[in-house]
Hints:
77 residues, alpha+beta, Ubiquitin-like (UB roll), 2 helices, 5 strands
Amino acid sequence: MQVTVRLEGHLREFFPKLHEPQTVAFTEPRTVAEIIEAVGMAASLPSSVLCNKQRVERDHMPADGDELVLLSPLAGG
Length: 77
């Protein structure tokens, strides 16, 4: 199973190794939370997660070839 992980917003600043989209491979299906942790981030850190442009919860099981976009909390004033 392969999933592409892409960061948006301020998360890109704090995780420079994920600045570009990364494809991660697993031998078994994983939840969104497990995938986030596998790329070196706390599962609770992204404020929202999109799977193929649809908002999903952290217990969602992406399919092979899906794209996850991790969104940072809103900031600014």
